[in-house]
Known about the structure:
By secondary structure, the chain is α+β, with helices and mostly antiparallel strands.
Amino acid sequence: MVVVVAGPREAAIDRLLAEHDLLLLAASQDSDPLLDLAHDSLARLGPRVETIPATVPPLTRALAVWGLGPGIGLSAIEARA
């Protein structure tokens, strides 16, 4: 099952995430305070949390800058599956 969550999570989402064995956190950079906060809050749910690079193709990035598409593609998740 693939669940994509962006932004604040509600309790129902946390319960859903806690049922899994592994959570993948896709990030465009190796470390920053917000990424660390997301990793720590997911780790408290119980499953193992892995951070993977989120590759964003140039066209997707350009569309996102103009507000026409998502900021992070799922290519990194698809590549790991």
